[in-house]
Amino acid sequence: MEPGYPYRGPVNGPHGGQFGGPVGMPVGMPMGGPGGRPFSCPPARSGYGPPPVGPPRGFPAGRPAGPMGGMMGGPPGMAAIMGPGMAPGMAPGMGPGMGPGMAPGMGQSLVLGGQPPVASRSAMLLSGCYAETMTANAVANSLDALRVCLAEPLQPPVMALLEEIRRCSGVLTQVLDSARTNPSRVPVLLDYLELLLPCFQKSLVDIRAHYDDNTKTKDIRWRTMYHKMTEEAGGIPLPQIFTLYHQFILLLGQMLTRSPSFDMNALEVLQQRIEQLREKQGLKPPEQSKALVAPSHLGMNYHDKNVHWAEDIFSRPLPCRTPLKHLEFSQCFGPWLPPAMPSTAKVLFRRSFDNERLTLIAYIDPTNKAPFLMIRCLDAANNPIYSTKGVHEVVMQRDGSCLVLQRWSYADKCAKLWAFLYFLTYEELVLFHTAFVALKADGGLTRKVQDHEFNLDREKRLFQAKIEDDGFDHLLIVYQDHKTRRMRLHVAIWSGELRYWPVWTAFVTHPSKSWVVRKGRRRIHLKDVQLYVFCNDYREEHMRQNKSGAFELIFHSEDAATHFKRLLDPFSSTATSSAPSTTPSGPPTSADDSDHSESSTSSGASDDK
């Protein structure tokens, strides 16, 4: 794929600039030249390349160039994302030997495969957000001028369209603001922006093309615009196309800032709808380039003590999505009481089920600093009802695609059913269960977490061994789900009072032939692996101090490293199922148990849980 988002249609902006208007075009400038005459537009360059160096037509006199030199009026703070090797005045994506106005891909190639490095790609796509923001404002203003000239019955749909376009411009601006304050999180957006921007750009360009068609009256221009673009989108009304864009961008902003309101399932649904819209618009699907994003960029800044690890777990895209079957409606069985979450509580995450019919919020109570879960359901009259329990009062077990939550009844002095939570994917189920166990283990009101609570039912243990991890001895386990066959790595504390507390987990995706690399007798590097960390004290970056940024596993024995490499290498001649079964089921009950000793766990092990 060529660098940048790959819209290849005729792109002439309202002022002749690329992407529907020059990057520095003032907000609110109307389309066309004086008297409404369209500007003469030069042929558009292909790809998402830098606009010409120098002030574009229509740029206010005396205004200095943007912080990226040639990218006039680019969003402030972008220079920090440009990365080393980019001289002032060079637009993002320009490599050595590229002159002003040359599109990326001309001259020297930036990287193999034609994709720019992450820093250049970030600057390029964020500049695209800025350009489309300016274009959207100009298009909305032009539609407002068009609305005044139309018959009154035609004005409401025009008003709805221009309001949705302005909302898109507003949330794009918010994303740019958040990108400046969360630069380490920007890489998680890149693939989504590459999916969105060509589609969003084409919709704006098509509106402008209809608006500039002086061969038709303004009534006919609007009717043609509305019906043709609705038909092209497969029947989605034109205003709702921009509603789709707005919802998608809003979720991207929530993901960027780790908002507790972020809903990954909703993002995935909207992503699929935009992919379908792109196909109907005749745009080629973008190549996924997640390998260009260092997994360390996806993690949270663990030095920031103000950010709880649980706030990060559900605020970034999953590396894979393994669907679960036999889904039913999630339910809560009370007791129902008024909402008990204090206004000053720290919200950790929010998970919704069945299109918001049931929502679970995890928060830290400011009084006792203990974690609590509040479930909000809708009754038969669609009124919200609430049930709240401390994490220390709840026990969780897996039943297929469902997590069963039981609460302790102080009145009856026994456990009672509290809720069923059905998950769409295996990854979400694992993350929710592990996060719950970690919160419960660390909760100030928890007396003791039983060993069996750390286990997730219906997983097979294929391997376990002792590793050196961030200066501590940890237990590494390879699990495989019984139904989906998806594998994951799970690391827990090796010994002591905190034994078996989860430290991190990562899902095995086999991204490339060389994703598992042997670097020594006891060292193995994992490339493109994304860790989900369940404690604030762990420092993932300590295990990525190598040239490639790969995650390093340091085993206590050479045999363990050998067996691990053989098990995880997808091109190994040894099948996963051939690992010998030497480890009994469940976690060991003492540090001296045989299945917890290094000599026995360095070999492959298999057990059904």
| Percentage beta strand | 15-25%
Task: Please give the count of helices.
Answer: 12
Biggest pleated sheet: 8 strands, antiparallel
State mean pLDDT (0 to 100 scale).
75
Q: In whole angstroms, how far apart are the ends? A: 44 Å
Rg over alpha carbons? 27 Å
InterPro entries: PH_C, PH_N
Region (Disordered): 1-65, 571-609
Biased composition (Gly residues): 14-23
Biased composition (Pro residues): 49-58
Protein architecture, described:
Helices cover 29% and strands 17% of the residues. By secondary structure, it is of the alpha+beta class. It folds into three domains: 18-34 and 46-98 and 110-293, no CATH class; 296-320 and 455-609, PH-domain like (Roll); 324-454, PH-domain like. The strands form three sheets. The chain has an eight-stranded antiparallel β-sheet, with helices on both faces. Strand 2 (346-353) and strand 3 form a beta hairpin. Helix 2 (118-148) runs antiparallel to helix 3 (155-181). It is globular and about 80 Å long. Residues 1-115, 289-303, 573-586, 588-595 and 597-606 have low confidence and may be disordered. Residues 343-453, 461-569 form the PH domain. Residues 14-23 have a biased composition (Gly residues). Pfam families: PH_FT_C, PH_FT_N.
How do the helices and strands line up, and which of them pair or pack?
Elements: H1 79-82, H2 118-148, H3 155-181, H4 190-211, H5 218-232, H6 238-256, H7 264-280, H8 295-298, H9 309-313, E1 331-332, E2 346-353, E3 358-364, E4 371-378, E5 384-390, E6 394-399, E7 402-409, E8 414-422, H10 426-442, E9 459-469, E10 472-481, E11 487-493, E12 502-507, E13 516-518, E14 523-526, E15 532-533, E16 551-555, H11 558-568, H12 598-601
Antiparallel strand pairs: 1-8, 2-3, 3-4, 4-5, 6-7, 7-8, 9-10, 9-16, 10-11, 11-12, 12-15, 13-14, 14-16
Helix pairs in contact: 2-3, 2-4, 3-6, 4-5, 4-7, 6-7
